Amino acid sequence: MHRISGVVILLLAGFAAPASAEPATYTIDDEHFSMHFEVMHIGYAPVMGMFRKVQGQFEYDEETRTLNSGSLVFRSKSVFTNHEKRDDHLRGKDFLNSGKFRDITFTITGFEATGENTGVVTGDLTLLGKTQPVDVNVTLNKAAEYPIGHEEYTMGFTAETTIKRSDWGMNYGLEESLVGDKVKLRFGFEAIRESRGWF
């Protein structure tokens, strides 16, 4: 199947790890996180939207280039497609059922490198109370100390995948072909490493 979340791990061919390197925690910067989804509407054109509220962390060992753990949590009520009536429908029982299922969660289970700065992050996506495996293609765009603002060591990523909403029991509009089954997901985000004593 497919598989989200926060990190590539092939990284840093050109970044030297400190001699005392160990797994470090990275926190998703919610001020620099964009998530875009796309679903076909009656075959005419895709409806595009996003989730406005997200939080997440992952643990990465720079010396061994290993992604140890991590997760992303989206607030289902924060869905936004720039149309109030449609957004209320998406929050309802036909789709996200936000009153019962507050969170959409992606939990990292593994990583496989596919190139110098690319890889596939595998994980479990929990939606509507059901968990399914998902693979996410991830690209590390940059890893370095931030040049402005917080000035902490930061990684920047692009990630994407496609899922079928019916795999999580979200079947509204499928028989009539009103709403497509395939959902394209694309992410752009920055993750900040927690400060350490030797910095």
The main pleated sheet reads as:
8 strands, antiparallel, barrel
What's the total count of β strands? 10
Radius of gyration using CA atoms only: 18 Å
**What is the strand arrangement across the widest sheet?**
1-3-4-6-7-8-9-10
Helix content: under 10%
Unreliable stretches covering 5 or more consecutive residues: 1-20
Q: Looking at the structure, what is the overall shape? A: elongated
Count of DSSP H/I helices = 1
| Helix-and-strand structural type | mainly beta
Give the SSE order as H and E letters: EEEEEHEEEEE
Mean pLDDT: 88
The percent range for strand residues is over 45%
The separation of the N and C termini measures: 41 Å
Topology:
Layout: E1 24-41, E2 45-51, E3 54-61, E4 66-75, E5 79-80, H1 84-91, E6 103-113, E7 118-127, E8 130-145, E9 153-164, E10 182-193
Antiparallel strand pairs: 1-2, 1-3, 1-10, 2-5, 3-4, 4-6, 6-7, 7-8, 8-9, 9-10
